[in-house]
Write a structure and sequence with these properties.
This protein has about 350 residues and is mainly β. It has one domain (about 5-185, about 195-350): AttH-like fold, CATH 2.40.370. Helices cover about 0% and strands about 55% of the residues. The protein is built from no helices and 24 strands. The chain has strands at about 25-35, 40-50, 55-65, 70-80, 90, 95-100, 105-110, 115-120, 125, 130-135, 140-160, 160-165, 170-180, 195-200, 205, 210-215, 220-230, 240, 245-250, 260-265, 270-280, 300-305, 320-330, 335-345. The N and C termini lie far apart (about 50 Å).
C-alpha cells in the first residue's frame, strides 16, 4: 500500500509508510493550546492518527465566558484513514505544516465553530525523555514527545461571534508518537483499579519558556520527569535540561483539580495561580464516546457544549484538566501557562485514594 509519505525520506522500516510496525496501539498526535493575554479566551486542538486501526480523529475547543456562565464549545470528528497518514484533515479540522519545527496553521470549520490560526515557535522544540511504562508483562506506553511554546495570530469564532487573536496570544504545542492505549480497551488486561499520575506545566514568560512534567507511581516515585528552561530564539543545543525540579501542588477542595502551586526549577521558584479550567475530554482524552482511536465509521462529526460551572469534578472522565494559570517568578516576571493534571487511583503525596475520590 503506497501513499504520499513514500515520496518523502520518512521510512523507519523496510515497509511502506502506511505501515507502522505490528503494535495495534501505535499512534501519531498533534496537540495545541492557546490563551489570550486577558485570560478570557482559551482554545485547544488535538489531531490523532492511528495507522493500525485505520482511524483519524480530531477535536477543537474554545472556552468563552458569558456573564456568569463559562462554556467549553467542542467540535469532534472521526473518519476512516484509508491508510493515508499525511492527509492532515478530518471533518473540517485541518493542519498545515508551513515550516517544520516552527510554524503551523490550523483551520477549523464545522457546527458553528470556526478558526484560522497560525502557531509560530519561540525557540527550537524540546525533546522530552522517552516515556516507557510497563504494567506486568504489558507495555502500556512507549513514546517520544517534543514540546514547543509559541504565539498565535488569526481568529476563532463560535456561532458567529469572532475573536481576533492579538500578538500576545501565547500557548504550547506538542507532537508525540509511539505506543499508548487507544481504541477499544484490551479485554485481557487485568481488571484492577488503574493508577496513573501526570502533571505538566508549560509556561510562557516574557523572554523565556519553562517546562516541567512528572509521571509518578502511587508512592510518588517518578518514572519520568524533567524540567527545561529555554530562552527565546534558542537552538536545540541551548536548552537547559534538569531533573532538579519539584512541583508543590495543592488541590481544590472536593476535587482532584490543581489549585495554587509552586514550581521549583533549580534555585528558581514560580507561583502558578489558576484562573480558569479546561476539560481535556473535549479533546477526546478519557472521553467515553470520543476517546482516541475509537471507530466511528467513514465519517462522524459532533458538537458538544460543556457547561464548566456544572461539571462533576469526581466523575472519571472529568479528572483530566488543564488549568490556565497566571505565573509569577520570584524576580517579578509574570506570564501565563497551563497546569495539566490527571490523577487516577491512589497517589500518596496528595493523600488520594480510590479511583477518583476527591481531596
Amino acid at each position: 500500500m503506497l501513499s504520499k509519505g513514500d515520496d518523502f525520506p520518512l521510512h523507519q522500516t523496510p515497509e511502506p509508510v502506511a505501515y507502522s510496525g505490528t503494535d495495534r496501539n501505535f499512534y501519531d498526535r498533534y496537540f495545541f493550546n492557546g490563551y489570550s493575554p486577558d485570560g478570557e479566551t482559551f482554545f485547544a486542538l488535538a489531531f490523532g492518527v492511528y495507522p493500525a486501526l485505520d482511524v483519524v480523529d480530531a477535536h477543537f475547543c474554545v472556552v468563552r465566558s458569558d456573564g456568569e456562565t463559562r462554556t467549553q464549545h467542542c467540535l469532534h470528528a472521526s473518519r476512516k484513514m484509508g491508510m493515508e497518514r499525511l492527509e492532515l484533515q478530518c471533518g473540517g479540522i485541518a493542519i498545515e505544516i508551513v515550516e517544520p519545527l516552527n510554524r503551523l496553521r490550523l483551520v477549523v470549520k464545522g457546527e458553528g465553530i470556526e478558526a484560522d490560526i497560525t502557531f509560530t515557535g519561540r525557540a527550537f522544540p524540546i525533546e522530552e525523555p522517552r516515556f516507557t511504562w510497563k504494567r506486568g508483562p504489558r507495555t502500556i506506553m512507549d513514546y517520544t514527545r517534543m514540546t514547543q511554546n509559541g504565539h498565535y495570530d488569526g481568529w476563532v469564532s463560535v456561532d458567529g461571534t469572532r475573536i481576533e487573536l492579538s500578538a500576545q496570544t501565547h500557548g504550547t504545542r506538542d507532537r508525540s508518537w509511539g505506543i499508548r492505549p487507544i481504541g477499544q480497551a484490551d479485554p485481557q488486561m487485568p481488571q484492577t483499579v488503574p493508577q496513573f499520575f501526570w502533571q505538566w506545566t508549560p509556561i510562557n514568560l516574557p523572554s523565556r519558556s519553562v517546562f516541567f512534567h512528572l509521571n509518578a507511581h502511587p508512592d510518588g516515585a517518578a518514572w519520568n520527569t524533567r524540567a527545561v528552561i529555554v530562552a527565546d530564539g534558542a537552538g536545540e543545543s541551548d536548552h537547559h535540561h534538569t531533573s532538579d525540579a519539584t512541583l508543590s501542588a495543592q488541590l481544590q477542595a472536593g476535587s482532584r483539580w490543581p489549585s495554587e502551586s509552586t514550581l521549583r526549577v533549580g534555585d528558581e521558584n514560580f507561583t502558578l495561580t489558576p484562573v480558569s479550567r479546561f476539560q481535556m475530554r473535549g479533546l477526546g482524552y478519557t472521553s467515553p464516546k470520543w476517546g482516541h482511536g475509537l471507530d466511528h465509521g467513514e465519517l462522524e462529526i459532533e458538537r458538544e457544549d460543556i457547561d464548566l460551572m456544572q461539571v462533576d469534578p469526581i466523575r472519571p472522565d472529568n479528572l483530566h484538566v488543564q488549568m490556565m494559570c497566571r505565573v509569577e517568578s520570584e524576580t517579578g516576571e509574570t506570564g501565563w501557562g497551563a497546569f495539566e493534571q490527571l490523577a487516577i487511583g491512589d497517589y500518596a503525596p496528595l493523600a488520594l485514594t480510590g479511583l477518583s475520590d476527591p481531596a
